[in-house]
Amino acid sequence: PVGIIVERTLETVVAVLAVLKASGTFVPIDPEYPETRIRYMLADSGARLVLTQSPLGSILPDEVHRLDVRDEALYQGNGENLPGISQPSDLLYIIYTSGTTGNPKGVMLEHRNMVNLLHFQKQATSIPLPSRILQYASGSFDVCYQEMFSALLFGGSLLMIDNETRKEPVRLFREIEANHIDVLYLPVAFLKFIFAEPEWAEASRGACVISLPPGSSWL
């Protein structure tokens, strides 16, 4: 298991793909979590290596090795793909629950689970693929990786947005319109909030909006 503690940027995708190409299991951790919670997740998952960004490295325990994903030296040398050795039953990721009823618990997902989901999405739903997909979900929510892989594996495009844009509907829909987004995965509560405002409801018209009930998992 390899921890990923990065801001919502291109480096998020780079870090996920790096771990998977090295046949590892990624453990996404929100950098906005309290330091005690981050340390608990790293210890509980057994992650001894973390991919992070320079300002965030100070929150990590000393015994955890860290790599700065913005260190240009890491991108030098042989750029060929590593041989794929992961098996369907290997772990894809470990995502931690909110911990509202106690300590957060790590939920383990195998490669075949994600493959099954994406196969179903392609064959049995009306979601258009390939598409231009918004990466809206938090990295600590499994839908984040449905967004990511349904874009990358079917030849689509993925739009990354920062946390400020996620929380501000006016900025959010400006980005959606400017980038011609086809598919949105949004929580029900947020959809109700949007459709209560005619201007925002109109702005979302034309996109394929996938509603996600609170606490739901597509996997």
Give structural notes:
The chain is an alpha/beta fold. It is built from eight helices and ten strands. It has helices at residues 10-21, 35-45, 111-124, 143-152, 163-167, 169-178, 188-195, 198-203, and strands at residues 2-5, 26-28, 49-52, 65-68, 91-96, 106-110, 132-135, 157-160, 183-187, 208-212. The protein has a four-stranded parallel beta sheet with strand order 2-1-3-4, covered by helices on one side. The longest helix has 14 residues, at 111-124. The relative contact order is 0.13.
Task: Name a few traits of the molecule.
alpha/beta, two-stranded antiparallel ribbon, 8 helices, 35% helix, globular, disordered C terminus
Tell me the layout of helices and strands:
Blueprint: E1 2-5, H1 10-21, E2 26-28, H2 35-45, E3 49-52, E4 65-68, E5 91-96, E6 106-110, H3 111-124, E7 132-135, H4 143-152, E8 157-160, H5 163-167, H6 169-178, E9 183-187, H7 188-195, H8 198-203, E10 208-212
Parallel strand pairs: 1-2, 1-3, 3-4, 7-8, 9-10
Antiparallel strand pairs: 5-6
Q: Largest sheet at a glance?
A: 4 strands, parallel
Strand coverage percent: 15-25%
Radius of gyration based on Cα positions: 18 Å
* Biggest sheet: strand arrangement: 2-1-3-4
Summing up helix and strand content along with how strands pair, one would put the structural category as: alpha/beta
- From the N-terminal CA to the C-terminal CA, the straight-line distance is 20 Å
Question: What's the average pLDDT?
Answer: 88
Coarse shape:
globular
Individual helix count: 8
In sequence order, what are the helices and strands, one letter per element? Answer: EHEHEEEEHEHEHHEHHE
* pLDDT < 50 runs, ≥5 residues: 215-219
Total beta-strand segments: 10
